[in-house]
């Protein structure tokens, strides 16, 4: 009879408690916010590199134009 009682006690302990659920949600939220900030930082770096590339292309176009106009 005792083995049945122990088996029944073990079945009642399945699942998350409220504290475990809140901690899990807090960790997921923290990881999400960290990944979003990393994505935003990467986008800003890409925009800066894209701007530099565009400026380089404009500079090359001005040099080409001036060399063609003077030739």
User: Strand-and-helix sequence, N→C?
Assistant: HH
Low-confidence stretches: none
The number of distinct helices, counting runs of at least 4 residues, comes to 2
Strand tally is: 0
User: Level of helix content?
Assistant: over 70%
In angstroms, what is the radius of gyration?
Answer: 31 Å
Distance between the termini: 105 Å
Report the portion of residues in β strands: under 5%
In round numbers, the mean pLDDT is 87
Shape assignment: rod-shaped
Features:
0% strand, rod-shaped, 71 residues, mainly alpha, 90% helix, N_methyl_site, 2 helices
Describe the protein in words.
The structure is a single chain. The chain has 71 residues and is mostly helical. The protein has one domain. The chain is 90% helix and 0% strand. The chain is rod-shaped. The termini are far apart. The relative contact order is 0.05. The model has no long low-confidence stretch (mean pLDDT 87).
Q: What does the secondary structure layout of this molecule look like, with pairings?
A:
Elements: H1 2-12, H2 18-70
Question: In summary, what is this structure?
Answer:
The protein has 71 residues and is an all-alpha fold. It has helices spanning 2-12, 18-70.
